Amino acid sequence: MRRLALLALLLPLVAPAQPAVAQTAALSCPVRVDPAAFASEARLSTLAEQQEAFGPRPTGSAAHAEYVDWLEEEMGAIPGLQFSSLPYAIDRWDSLGTGLTVGGASVQVAAPVPFSFSTGAGGVTAPLVHLAAGTNITAANAAGKIVVRDLPWTNVPNLLFYPPTLGYSMYDPGLTINLLGSESMEAPAAADADLKAAAAAGAVGVIEVSQLPHAQIQGMYAPYEGLPYALPGAYVGADQGKQIKDALAAGQQVQATLTVNAAWTPTTTRTLLATLPGGSAQKIVVESHTDGMSPVWDNGPLTMIEMARYLASLPVECRPRTVQFAFVTGHLYQHLTGPDVREGGAGQLAAQLDAEYDQGGVSSVVVIEHLGAKRYDAVARPNGLPGKQLVASPTLTELLLVPVSESTPLRELVKGHIQYWDVRRTAILKGLSAADLATVPRHCSFGGEGTPYNQHLLPVISPIAAPKTLFSPQFGAEAIDLGMMRKASLAFTDVVLDLGPMAQSAVAGDVTTMRQQRASGTPGCA
Description:
With 526 residues, this protein is α/β, with parallel strands linked by helices. The chain has 15 helices and 19 strands.
C-alpha cells in the first residue's frame, strides 16, 4: 500500500489550519522514507557490533554508563539535537563470584540469580532437595535446605495473536505461523517466585536448573527487580542439573555448598533525552532502554540513532511535531526509585509524560525493542545429552508483536507501514493481556517497555518480540536478522514521520475518553 493512499485516508483527520502542514506541502516533504537516505544493513551491523563490544550492561554498571555515553556521542554528531538527562541514585548489585559443590564434587554454575543474598566467599552448606515444578515450596519440605528447581517454559497459543482475541491484524504472507501451535520460551523470571517462597519456607538457597546447556545460558540475567532477595540463588545448565539429580537419585542425603558472593555499591544511572525541535513543541517520544545483556535484547537505540539522523536531515517544516528520543535506564532494575513502584525508568518517564499530556505537551510514544530478532528453536541435543539446545532458523525471525493503543487510525497507520516494508511475521495487537472493561486502559499489559506508557493512558505503539535468546549474553549480534531489522526500522521511521501531521484526535482515539473516565474515578491498572 503506497503512503500516498494512506495519507489520503488520514487527510480528513489532519487539522486544516496548521501553518506547518501547509508549508510541508509547499516544500514537497517526503511522503515516505527514502531507503537510500537511511542506514544500510552494513551500518546497522557496525552499530550492533559496537554495542556488543560493551558486553553485558546491568543497570548502573561501568559498561552501561560507557554505552550511554557512546549513545550521546553518536546522537551528538547529528545537527540540531538538544540534550538533557534524568539521573537516578541506585545501589548497584555486583556479582563477585559464584560456586557450587554437590557431595564434595564441583558443579559448574552458569550465573547467579541477580540481586541474590550474598553468602560471602564461604557460601552456605545444607542438604539438597529437588522439588519438581508444580510442587509448592513449604517449610515441611524445604526448611534448612538448598532447593533444586526446574525452570518452566511458557507457552502462548498463536491463535491469541489473531482477531478477535488480542489481535487486530496479522501480517504473515508466507503462512509461516502454525495456528494450532504456540510461542514458547524458558522462563527464568520464575526464579523470583521460587526465591521468595523458599525464603518464606526457611530454605537457605535455590538452584534453578535450565533445560539448555551451560554454554547457552552462561551469564543469564533474570529476574531483574532491583530488590534484594533474602537468600542466594544460582542457575545451572542441563548437564549440571543432571549431575545434581544423579547425586540425589541414590536416595541418600546430599550436602551442597552454594556460594553467591556479591556487593551492593551506591552509584548513579541516567536516562538520556535527545530532543529534535519541530514545528510545534508537542512531542512524539521514541523510546528504548539502554541496560541489557546483548544487542538483540535492546537494539532499539541503534534504530533510534538512524531515525534521528534521517529526521534531522529534513527541514523543520517537514517535522510538524517535536521528536524526543528517550534512552531509558532501569529496565534491569525495575524498582528504580524504591520498593513500592515497579516501573523502571520507563515508568518514571511515563508518569512525567502523563502529567504533560493534558496540557498538549505530548502527542504519542513509540517504543522500540527486539527488531529483527532471529527465531531460535529448542531442539533435542545430540548424542543423548540431556535437555534442549537453541538452533537458529535459517529463514525466520521471531513473531514481532506490536500492541497499539485504542485508536483505529493509529492501528491502520502501523498496519500500512508494516505491510509496505514487508516486515513479515508481525502481529498488530490490542494488548498483551485479557481485556478488562472495568479498568482504563482495557488491556493492562503491552508486554514490555510499552506497558507503563499504556497504563498511564498515553497513545502508544510498542513493537516487541520474545526471542528465546533474550536473557543470555551468549547470543550477540549474530542473533539479529539485519535485513529484517532494517525493514522494521524503516517502517517505524515512517510511522514517526506520519505521526507528525496527524490530528491529535486521531492519534489518541479512545485514550481521550479513557483519561476522562480515569479523572471521574474509573480504576487504572494495579
